[in-house]
Design a protein that fits this description.
This protein is an alpha+beta fold. The protein contains 10 helices and 22 strands. Strands 5-14-15-16-13-17 form a 6-stranded mixed sheet, with helices on one face. Strand 15 and strand 16 form a beta hairpin. The protein binds flavin-adenine dinucleotide.
Length: about 475
C-alpha cells in the first residue's frame, strides 16, 4: 500500500509533498481536496506491517505529547483517527489530573487541566499514513530522496522536484515538509532565489530517553509523571505511557545538565531530579532499550513568509519552516494548525491559482503557528531562556526550563496559595476558549512538598521520599 512505484506519469497539475511526517501527511490530505493527484515523496522505507521506527524521524524515540488542539484538528481532517489511535494502544489523558506532576513551584493537584494524547510516535505516524492513504488521490513514493527543485521555464516558478535517482517529478505545487533537516534554503539558492532569514533561540536543552516495560501494580493511580526543573535544579524528566504496555522515560537538562546516554548513568540522573519519584518508578522496571540522546533542540524559525521574491509553486511547512524547543510539545499541533490554515486558503482557489498564491498561503500558515503558539511563549515568561539568542556566553538562566520559576508570579494575591497560571493552557497549544474547548484555567497546587493526592506505593527511598520536592 505504502510504496507506490506505479508508472503513472505525475501530472504537471498535481501537487508533490516532500516528507511523510505529520506535516507532510496532513498537507497531502488537505491538498487532495483541490488537486486530483498528490504524491508524497519519502526518503525512508515505510513498513506496512505496523508501527516501526524510521531513521527519518529520530525524535520518535523521545516522549511526544499531542495536545487537545492537535487531536481535534487531526480528527477534523481525518475522522476516526482518534479511535484508531486508542484502539492501537494510545491513551487520551487529562493533565495534570492523570499525572504526578511536579511544577517548578510544587506538585499539582489532580484536577482537570488539558487533554493530551499519549502514545508512540510510530503508532501516530502509521495511523495517520493509513488514514491519509485511504484517499485514492494520494500516493506515496517511499525510498525516494528529494535533492532539489526544478525551475519552470519562466525562471519565477518551481515546476517540480528532483530525486536522488535523477528522476524529475513535475508538479504545479511542491510542498517541503522534510522536517528539521530540510535543505530548502540551499535548493532556493541553487535556483537563484533569495533564502529566508532565520530566528533562532537555543536553551541548549538535551534529551535522553529509554523504553521500559510497565511493571504491573494495581495500586498505581497515576498514568504518567512529569518532574520539571527550575533554575536552581535545572534537570527534569517525564514518563509517558505508550502502546504495547510500555513507558517511555525522557530525561531533560540544559547545557551542562544535559542527561547522559550511558546505560549505567541513566537512573543516577533520574535520582538527581528535584523529586526521586521518577527514579523510584523506574528503579525496578525492566528496561527495553538503551538510552538514546537528542541535542539539536533550538527554537528555529525560517521566515519564508517574509520573502518578497519567493518563487511561485513552492511552500514550506512543519518543522522545515518552524521548529520548537521540543519541551513545549507543540510541533505536531503546529503542523496541524498549518494544515488547517492551508485548507482555509485553498477553499477559494482553483488548482491553477494555487502556485501564484503561495506567498499569501505561506504567511497564513506561519501566522497559524505563531498566533496559536509561538508568540504566546515569546510574550510570556515561559520562553525567557529560549528568547536569548543562540550565540553569546552561557548564562545561568539558560538552564531554566520552560515555566515561570518565580513563585511570586504564581501566588494568588492575598492568599499565599500558589497557583500555576498559564502552564497548562500554554501547553494546550493555542486551544481557543470556547464551546467544546479547554479554556485556560489556573491549576491548583498540592500542599507544600507532597503529591499527597497520588500516593505512590512503596516505601520512600530517600529522606522525605516522594514527598521531597526541592
Ligand atoms: C526530541 C523531540 C521531542 C518532541 N516532542 C514533541 C511533543 O511532545 N509534541 C509535539 O507536538 N511535537 C514534538 N516534537 C516535534 C515533532 O516531532 C515535529 O514537530 C513533528 O514531527 C512534525 O514534523 P514534520 O512532519 O515537519 O517533520 P518530521 O516528522 O521530522 O518528518 C519529516 C519527514 O521527511 C522525510 N525526509 C527528510 N528529508 C527528505 C528528503 N530529502 N526527501 C524525502 N523525504 C525526506 C523524513 O524521512 C521524515 O519522514 C518533538 C521533537 C523532538 C526533536
Amino acid at each position: 500500500m505504502d510504496d507506490d512505484m506505479d508508472d503513472h506519469p505525475e501530472p504537471r497539475d498535481g501537487a508533490v509533498v516532500l516528507g511523510a511526517g505529520v506535516a507532510g501527511l496532513l498537507a497531502a490530505r488537505v491538498l487532495a481536496e483541490r488537486f486530483d493527484r498528490v504524491t508524497v515523496v519519502e526518503r525512508d522505507e515505510l513498513p506496512d506491517s505496523g508501527p516501526a521506527f524510521r531513521p527519518g524521524v529520530p525524535q520518535s524515540r523521545h516522549a511526544h505529547v499531542l495536545w487537545s488542539k492537535g487531536v481535534d484538528l487531526i480528527e477534523d481532517l481525518l475522522p476516526g483517527t482518534t479511535a484508531r489511535l486508542l484502539a492501537g494502544g494510545a491513551v487520551l489523558l487529562d493533565l495534570p489530573r492523570d499525572f504526578l506532576w511536579l511544577s517548578p513551584a510544587d506538585w499539582f493537584l489532580p484536577v482537570h487541566g488539558a487533554r493530551a494524547l499519549l502514545g508512540s510516535r510510530e503508532l501516530l505516524d502509521r495511523t495517520l499514513r493509513g488514514q491519509v492513504l485511504r484517499d485514492a488521490r494520494i500516493r506515496v513514493r517511499a525510498r525516494c530522496t528529494a535533492t532539489g527543485l526544478v525551475a519552470a521555464a519562466d525562471g519565477r516558478s518551481v515546476a517540480g522536484v528532483e530525486l536522488r535517482s535523477g528522476e524529475r517529478l513535475p508538479a504545479r505545487l511542491v510542498v517541503d515538509a522534510t522536517g528539521r533537516t530540510s535543505r530548502a534554503p540551499d535548493w532556493l539558492a541553487a535556483l537563484g532565489h533569495p533564502v529566508p532569514a532565520t530566528t533562532r533561540y537555543d536553551s541548549r536543552l538535551g534529551y535522553s530517553s529509554r523504553y521500559y516495560a510497565v511493571p504491573p501494580d494495581p495500586a498505581r493511580r497515576w498514568r504518567g509523571m512529569y518532574v520539571q526543573g527550575r533554575p536552581d535544579s535545572p534537570r527534569g524528566g517525564v514518563l509517558v505511557p505508550l502502546d504495547g504496555d510500555r513507558w517511555l522515560a525522557t530525561l531533560i537538562g540544559n547545557g551542562d545538565h544535559a542527561p547522559p546516554t550511558a546505560q549505567e548513568e541513566f537512573l543516577g540522573f533520574a535520582r538527581s531530579l528535584r523529586s526521586p519519584a521518577l527514579h523510584d518508578a523506574l528503579r525496578d522496571a525492566q528496561p527495553l532499550s538503551s538510552p538514546v540522546g537528542f541535542r539539536n533542540t533550538a527554537n528555529e524559525r525560517r521566515h519564508y513568509e517574509r520573502l518578497e521574491h519567493a518563487p511561485d509553486g513552492f511552500l514550506v511547512l512543519g518543522d522545515a519552516a518552524c521548529r520548537f524547543n521540543p519541551v513545549y510539545g507543540h510541533g505536531m499541533t503546529v503542523a496541524a494548525l498549518a494544515a488547517d490554515a492551508l485548507r482555509g486558503e485553498l477553499r477559494t482557489l482553483s488548482p491553477r491559482e494555487v502556485p501564484g498564491a503561495v506567498r499569501r498561503i505561506q504567511r497564513s500558515t506561519a501566522a497559524a503557528g505563531r498566533d496559536g503558539l509561538a508568540d504566546r511563549h515569546e510574550r510570556g515568561p515561559a520562553l525567557s531562556a529560549d528568547r536569548r539568542p543562540a550565540t553569546g556566553p552561557h548564562h545561568p538562566d539558560h538552564a531554566a526550563l520552560h515555566v515561570p520559576s518565580d513563585r511570586r508570579r504564581q501566588r494568588r494575591p492575598g492568599r499565599g496559595r500558589p497557583l500555576l497560571r498559564g502552564t497548562v493552557p500554554v501547553r494546550d497549544a493555542g486551544h481557543p476558549a470556547g464551546p467544546g474547548h479547554d479554556a485556560p484555567r489556573p491549576v491548583p497546587l498540592a500542599p507544600a512538598g507532597r503529591p499527597a493526592h497520588h500516593p505512590v506505593p512503596g516505601p520512600p527511598r530517600a529522606a522525605g521520599g516522594l514527598g521531597r520536592a526541592g
